[in-house]
Amino acid sequence: MPIDYSIDNARRLVVARGSGAFTPEEVFAYQREVWSRSDVAGYDELVDMTGVETVVEATSDNIWQLAELAAGMDSDSPRTTKMAIVAPQDLLFGLGRMFDAYRNADRRSNKEVRVFRTIEEAMAFLGVDGTL
Q1: How far apart are CA 7 and CA 100, in angstroms?
Q2: Is residue 113 in some structural domain?
Q3: Domain enclosing residue 120, as ranges
Q4: Which regions in the chain score pLDDT beneath 50?
């Protein structure tokens, strides 16, 4: 799977890293696998797409479906969580912005999503010190 993730319980943060070819099936699988876990409810998320080389079948419909699924899986925590997407490549940055717009349009969403070009900007937005 070109999406590897780790859970940093001390920081209440899920860190996902994409690599190689990015497909809708793998992104949906990641979403379902990680965010169905009760132990990460209320955690922030960092998605680093720096290592992604190719995006397969990225359509606005796929992105809308992913945003809808993600918003529906948000925890009922009163705390608004944050999601930072790191996308230095133009195509991935644009896709990330599209995901952000669709997700924020869903009333069930309680995650503040932002897209960044660098990991440093993303970590600052998340309030994360140190290295990952």
Answers
A1: 22
A2: yes
A3: 3-126
A4: none
